[in-house]
């Protein structure tokens, strides 16, 4: 689930790092300063280790949060669809991440949690989608209670991180001496 940060009415910032598989997944949650989890999953046929840091969006730990933002490879910005305050808080997280990363964009997914509470919704899908269109990030709705789109939001973030890393660090091109054939294949002259 998304942990205690969004089971109540608070916003939640999940910092994600993706690496080679190893370790285990811890599912218990104790909303203290932070909690970390490691989970092995397969995304698009590739086994991936997710290192998840749940900072629970607690304001009193803002300095520590900036450190997590510096090291994170992607972020789930989780807010409660029935809480306007948590929605505004994740918008601040978005701005803070871009400031800390010194970038105009970075891998993020905005997740509206508590989709099961449609009658209590105060943030419309259209409002959240307008924010994500403006800031070029992905939007999903989820329900931690019903396990709807919880795993999928992490998988979507992994895909976004991978695309971002491919653009930022394309695979090295082999540098051969010689000329290129018209077909684009390297031709080595000996």
TrEMBL record:
PROSITE patterns in UniProt: RAB, RAS
Gene3D superfamilies documented for this protein: P-loop containing nucleotide triphosphate hydrolases
Membrane topology: Lipid-anchor
Protein family according to the UniProt entry: Belongs to the small GTPase superfamily. Ras family.
One Gene Ontology biological process: signal transduction
Any one GO MF annotation of this record: GTPase activity
UniProt name for this protein: RAS related
């Amino acid at each position: 689930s998304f942990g205690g940060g969004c089971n109540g009415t608070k916003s939640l910032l999940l910092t994600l790092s993706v690496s080679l598989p190893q370790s285990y997944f811890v599912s218990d949650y104790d909303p203290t300063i932070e909690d970390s989890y490691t989970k092995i999953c397969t995304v698009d046929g590739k086994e991936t280790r997710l290192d998840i840091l749940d900072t629970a969006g607690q304001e009193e730990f803002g300095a520590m949060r900036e450190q997590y933002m510096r090291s994170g490879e992607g972020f789930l910005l989780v807010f409660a669809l029935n809480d306007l305050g948590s929605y505004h808080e994740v918008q601040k997280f978005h701005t803070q991440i871009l400031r800390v990363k010194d970038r105009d964009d970075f891998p993020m997914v905005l997740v509206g949690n508590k989709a099961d509470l449609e009658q209590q919704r105060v943030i419309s899908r259209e409002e959240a989608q307008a924010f994500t269109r403006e800031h070029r990030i992905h939007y999903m709705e989820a329900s931690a209670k019903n396990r709807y789109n919880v795993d999928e939001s992490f998988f979507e973030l992994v895909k976004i991180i991978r695309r971002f890393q491919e653009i930022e660090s394309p695979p090295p091109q082999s540098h051969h001496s010689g000329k290129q054939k018209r077909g684009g294949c390297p031709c080595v002259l000996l």
